[in-house]
Amino acid sequence: MLERIEGKHAHDPLFDKIMNKSPRFVSVPGPVIVGAGPSGLAVAACLRQKGVLSMVLERFSCIASLWQLKTYDRLRLHLPKQFCELPLMGFPGEFPTYPTRQQFIHYLESYAQKFEIGPRFNETVTHAEYDKVTGFWRVKTVGKKTEETVYRCRWLVVATGENAEAVVPEIDGMGEFGGDIKHTSFYKGGEEFKGKKVLVVGCGNSGMEVCLDLCDHSAKPSLVVRHTLHVLPREMLGKSTFGMSMWLLKWLPLRLVDRFLLAVSRLTLGDTARLGLDRPELGPLELKNLSGKTPVLDVGTLAKIKSGDIKICPGIKKLKRHTVEFIEGKTENFDAIILATGYKSNERDMFSEIDGFPTKPFPNGWKGECGLYAVGFTKRGILGASVDAKRIAEDIERCRNEEAVENVD
Ligand SMILES: Cc1cc2nc3c(=O)[nH]c(=O)nc-3n(C[C@H](O)[C@H](O)[C@H](O)COP(=O)(O)OP(=O)(O)OC[C@H]3O[C@@H](n4cnc5c(N)ncnc54)[C@H](O)[C@@H]3O)c2cc1C
Ligand SMILES: NC(=O)C1=CN([C@@H]2O[C@H](COP(=O)(O)OP(=O)(O)OC[C@H]3O[C@@H](n4cnc5c(N)ncnc54)[C@H](OP(=O)(O)O)[C@@H]3O)[C@@H](O)[C@H]2O)C=CC1
Ligand SMILES: O=C(O)C(=O)Cc1c[nH]c2ccccc12
């Protein structure tokens, strides 16, 4: 009788609660990897190459959810393809220097297929704790229908990304504003904004490119710039700015490379401060190293600011039904607001009561205590994640071999 009722009410959370149904337990012989983005896939592939099978847990129903679900249509990699490859498999030769979003997604799908990575989808990791007595991690997930599973594993690799959650600032009067307000993670393209006045808040790479996209769709964008920022051309002297920087850093100190980058940017882009974009005191690479703040790589937005197609505005003071009041006291009407205010990571929520999650910066940040690892948290994009992934796979393999020897002894 109970079986019949259970069948009928399968996945009914209320029923589970009434029946006091306990979570499912799964024992995983290899490492558990949380997140099926580029970082998680890279670790799983490196492990598989060493003959270590892992289990990848992903909260959405696809791999690379950031790229598939939360990015805009016109997005391309900003860095040349050789700096965005995952370990063990390069991009197809026919891909352009800056692959499109679709091409990058296709590459990741092929990567997962090649290394036979089949993540468990719709499993959100909510909690992870280390059991000192048994020497195993307990990783709790919640499924689509709130069903709970506890995975037990010896190694835990956190690959949930630096962009796991959208940062949505609280702006005075936000509830009162009559137009659409959306974060860039929900922005696909500018069609719906044709002829509309749109205020883009935040001038990182997303905000800058969304403004350009809005221009291309005959919308009228304004951009809120409340602090200083570095804008560099995506390419200088016929080479990618990123590639050029990496090459120069082999020979010159960072500050000299920064001076070079700023001199060439001044020649090609002009004085950005005259457009309302003041530069920080620190150079672009020094700032990136110290704070993680990525310089904006210009793909055409600056020309639209120069031509007046994109207006620069100061910080917002408050919103009213149709208007935005800026900190200087000026007000202006807008039809919609796009929050290009960035992202934050979520991994700390899982480890609320536990020590051992790596806090040290690169190059040691990838390894924690008790078989815990972190991949993709060094603010060095896909290239940084690939470096982490290789180290983690090597470390896990070494641990396994050591344990195997100990067991024989
Ligand atoms: C618009 C945009 C463009 C970018 N372009 C570049 C670029 O050109 N070059 C570059 O090097 N970097 C770029 N980056 C940086 C970006 O961080 C990397 O591209 C890359 O996606 C990072 O991979 P990741 O796997 O670490 O994180 P993500 O791609 O964010 O993947 C993390 C995965 O973990 C899953 N997850 C999160 N929390 C949980 C949980 N609790 N339980 C289960 N699963 C979970 C997520 O759903 C996601 O699928 C860009 C970032 C953005 C936002
Ligand atoms: N093609 C590509 O490769 C692309 C790469 N990216 C990458 O994705 C990551 C995320 O980029 P992005 O989404 O631009 O996020 P970022 O974190 O880089 O930028 C967020 C911006 O929002 C501003 N901001 C935050 N809160 C407020 C507020 N309350 N009022 C006004 N301004 C605010 C910040 O300015 P402040 O300094 O004032 O805090 C900053 O300029 C980055 O690593 C970026 O390089 C993004 C787009 C394209
Ligand atoms: O897009 C990003 O944020 C990246 O992390 C890529 C990246 C890493 N280091 C940089 C230095 C300059 C420009 C982009 C990057």
Describe this structure in a few short sentences.
The protein has helices spanning 2-8, 13-18, 38-49, 65-69, 101-114, 205-216, 241-249, 254-269, 284-291, 301-306, 347-350, 381-408; strands at residues 24-27, 32-34, 55-57, 124-131, 136-142, 148-153, 156-158, 165-166, 180-183, 197-201, 220-224, 231-233, 235-236, 239-240, 296-298, 311-313, 316-319, 323-326, 331-333, 336-339, 343-344, 372-374.
Overview of the structural elements:
- With about 400 residues, the protein is an alpha/beta fold.
- The protein folds into two domains: about 20-165 and about 345-405, FAD/NAD(P)-binding domain, CATH 3.50.50; about 165-340, 3-Layer(bba) Sandwich (FAD/NAD(P)-binding domain), CATH 3.50.50.60.
- Helix content is about 30%, strand content about 20%.
- It contains twelve helices and 22 strands.
- Helix 3 packs parallel to helix 12 (about 380-409) and helix 7 packs antiparallel against helix 8 (about 255-270).
- Mean pLDDT is about 90; it is low at about 1-10.
- Bound molecules: flavin-adenine dinucleotide, NADPH dihydro-nicotinamide-adenine-dinucleotide phosphate and 3-(1H-indol-3-yl)-2-oxopropanoic acid (3IO).
- The site of 3-(1H-indol-3-yl)-2-oxopropanoic acid (3IO) has 9 residues, from loops.
- It holds the Pfam family FMO-like.
